[in-house]
Amino acid sequence: MEGYIKSVVLDTDEILQTYNDNPLDFFKDKKICLFKACLEYYYPGIRTCLKSMLEDFDLQVSTSLEQSCCSGTFLQRNLITRAQFAAINERNIVSINEIADILIVSCNGCYLSLLRGRKFLNSKDIREKTTKILKEFKKDILFSPKLKIVHILDFLHLIREQIGERLKYSLNGLKCAVHYGCHYLNLLLDKKDIHSFIAPKNKLEDILTILGGSIIEYQERDSCCGWGASQNVIHRDEALQITFNKLKSAESAGAELLVTNCPTCLYSLNKFRDDMKDLFGESPQIPAVHINELIGVLMEYECDKYCIERILPLIEELKI
Amino acid sequence: MATKNESKNNWDFFNRIITDVDENWNIIQCISCGKCVGDCPASKISDFNIRKIVEKVLIGDESILKEEDIWYCFLCNKCSKICPKEGINIPLFILSLRNEAFKKGYNIPQLKKYVKMCKRFLENGTVMKESDLPTERIEEIKKICEFARIKYLHKASKKNIGIEE
Ligand code: SF4
Ligand code: SF4
User: Fold this and answer.
1) Whose CA is nearest to atom 2 of ligand 1?
2) A25, A235, A245, B107: least buried by Cβ within 10 Å?
């Protein structure tokens, strides 16, 4: 991993070496901040459930008032330059670094933006431009911030045993399919390190097994949710074909619930069911949820109505 | 047989793509194996073919800038993961092609769908309807984006010069 990325990523393997019995102990004296993803607007449970769980574990949690959107969508459409993008992301890191030690990111897109911004800084040209932009606000690039960033799946996987001990309900064998999302599965950073590149990515399956779910393999497990860097804004009808195929594939393999770790994928997997009916003559019925929401319901935390709507019928049906 | 002149033009296009992002240099290693096409979501829903696009850049065929194809890429990175060559980064390469297309003014229909999001980001600091970001931070974002395309799009939305929301 290159310098600017390595210095900001939380090394969960290292934590395991020292805190193998209870990795939560590592976080006890740390201030945790939750990164706000734009699409949590539609699924507030992604953050509230995670916050409730962390508080339940007696951890100190906050969000940053100064954090802006990660601007990934504008970089993808060439509406901002790489230096501007790096400045927006570095500015968020600088703010959050002042109030927290750990930043948990529950969205693949935001996580990629934060890391990609840092990756761009490895180029001298971009670093100079970014420095110049930040200087205007009397801020500077942090080569080695105190703040460490962790992806939600890496975090939940690290403390999965402790989560298991707190559950009020179990999934009781509910058939679950997983959706990781391209920006988790295909991170290019992994290609540099042959071990992480060839290692199977199955943290979500591990967590769901602890929640009591049984895992369903399906053909389109690794395919895109259809969002595709706003393809479902730009070429909506075509992109929905990808979403439809994915949902149908999970359904026909017998899955009763589709669990993801990304709010953007979740939006894509949930929001367009009616459009699918118009386009393809049928609308897949399988509910999709974010792993944070699912944990929240199983821990009996107060959840928003959208969360309840999708998960509760299943739980009632199972009489868990 | 290619004349001297033609070969100069060919490398011109390639050079511009490298000037944009030096990592794009790596596409020269492409062996046309086509592995990248197999599982590409954009290929499943359109005529998009990333192997052919790489090839066209290498032979200097700029016609791809005018075509809709480059706007179909999902930036999902599946191809780069599966590509047998070490440093080929397709999403960054596609972004550079889109950048070139922008410079030549070939992208107006794409812009239209982004007006609302740009407006929200520059006025709220988020792409959503509501935000609690302090005014100073919103001002910072506007400043960071000064002279960026996003700013022009935002201005266009205010002047209502034919770009609808
Ligand atoms: S990044 Fe683009 S070219 Fe590569 S697999 Fe995804 S859609 Fe296809
Ligand atoms: S997989 Fe890589 S080497 Fe093979 S055609 Fe695609 S870009 Fe070229």
Assistant:
1) B73
2) A25
- Which of the four CATH numbers 3.30.300.30, 1.20.1050.140, 1.10.357.10, 1.10.10.10 does domain A3-152 have? 1.20.1050.140
Judge whether A263 and A107 are in contact, CB under 8 Å. Answer: yes
Q: What is the average pLDDT score of chain A?
A: 91
Q: Is the pLDDT of residue A315 over 80?
A: no
**Rounded to a whole number, what is the distance in Å from the CA of B80 to chain A's nearest CA?**
7
Domain ranges of chain B: 12-106, 110-159
Q: Which residues, in sequence order, are CB contacts of B67 under 8 Å at separation 6+?
A: none
**How confident is the prediction for chain B on average, in pLDDT?**
82
Distance from CA of A62 to the nearest CA of B (A): 15
Distance CA B104, CA B98 (A): 10
The residue type found at B38 is: G
Q: Residue A272, Cα to own-chain centre: how many angstroms?
A: 20
Q: Is B93 in the pocket of ligand 2 (CB under 6 A)?
A: no
Give me the CATH topology for the region A162-314.
Rossmann fold (3.40.50)
> What residues in chain B have per-residue pLDDT under 70?
1-9, 107-111, 152-165
Closest ligand 2 atom, residue B37 Cα:
6
Q: Rounded to an integer, what distance in angstroms lies between the CA atom of residue B43 and that of residue B145?
A: 33
**pLDDT band at A192; cut points 50, 70, 90:** low
B 84-103 residues with CB < 8 A to A: 86, 89, 95, 98-99, 102
| Distance (Å) from CA A238 to ligand 1 centroid | 15
Q: Which of A38, A68, A139 to mutate to test the interface with B (most CBs of B within 10 A)?
A: A68
Q: Where are the domains of chain A?
A: 3-152, 162-314
DSSP structure class, residue B129 = S
User: Is ligand 2 within 6 A of the CB of residue B30?
Assistant: yes
Tokens of A197: 């590149």
Instruction: Report yes or no: B164 at the A interface, CB cutoff 8 Å.
Output: no
Using a CB–CB cutoff of 8 Å, tell me whether A91 touches chain B.
yes
Q: What is the pTM of this model?
A: 0.91
pLDDT value of position A191: 62
Shortest-distance Cα residue to atom 6 of ligand 1: B76
